[in-house]
Amino acid sequence: MKLSILDLSPISTGKTSREALQESMELARIGENLGYTRYWVTEHHDLEGLASSAPEILLAYIGANTNRIRIGSGAVLLPHYKPYKIAETFNMLATLFPGRIDLGVGRAPGGSAEVTMALSDNFLEQVRKMPESLSDLLNFLYQTFPEDNKFSKVSAAPVPDVMPVPWLLGTSIKSARLAAEYGIPYAFGQFMSDKEGASIIKEYKDAFMGGKQRLNPETIITVSVICAKTTEEAEELALSSDLWSVLRAKGEAAKGIPSIKEAKEYVFSEEEQEKVKKGREKVIIGNPTEVKEKLQKIQEHSQADEIMITTVTHRFEDRAASYDLIAKSFLK
């Protein structure tokens, strides 16, 4: 089973954004050495506790400090941008790092309503035009505009020898159908969706059209995991993200991912305890044996080609150790 990493570039209390981004680069190095298939970084804007607002820049930094692992965006938020600029940017990355670049796109706003207005005009209208924008993006990447199109002679330079692989990311059947229609790989974000991933992935595969790109119906399912040597240690590590989710909902997470000590000292209300309980239903927490069994069940049930793992802990060392333990269970 293929395993990959989705990195949110979390900022822990007591650390800076620069340190968080440096840790992202270091985690990519670790993932490469452990045998993970790919390393994707997210796009978030003015979201407390997360550092990556420009994945294309972070990918250049990571690419320059790794050698083999595929790197990509999880995801560039297409409604905010012109497809041509995205095609140029990822063609540049693919030219610099041949055969290693994934261009994952999504339709989420990536931040608050105010952030959305600051980023782009008429966001909802751009979401409605997502199919058209995705079509334009693919045509710019593969230079497949019909001759009578105004962009038929426009090149998204530099044109790399090995094209970036486009992916559509989503959390609903709508995104799966769009990916199938355009014949591109699909990644389902189970960790942030209440919907059942197996049925959505099945519909994607059943509806896959292939299209001009002739890509395979490749699928990823992304899950949240915290792994430690013992179940008790993993449960303790999860306290940080428990409190972080509560503080984010209250607009009080400006200091970043809290420590375990901070989480233990915090007095959760009954409503917050219920929120934490519900949130943990979407997280796999346990020792290597438990985590492996749960990931295998997810893969068997969903029939996804690959599982992508996202992990948030206060200490970078614990995050790296979690990926290390999982890799040693699966990959070596």
Automatic annotation (TrEMBL):
Database matches in Gene3D superfamilies: Luciferase-like domain
A Pfam family per the record: Bac_luciferase
GO molecular function: oxidoreductase activity, acting on paired donors, with incorporation or reduction of molecular oxygen
Luciferase-like domain location: 1-300
InterPro entries for this protein: Bact_Lucif_Oxidored, CmoO-like, Luciferase-like_dom, Luciferase-like_sf
Cellular component terms (Gene Ontology): cytosol
Family as reported in the entry's similarity comment: To bacterial alkanal monooxygenase alpha and beta chains.
NCBIfam families, alphabetized: oxido_grp_1 (TIGR03558)
Name recorded for this polypeptide: LLM class flavin-dependent oxidoreductase
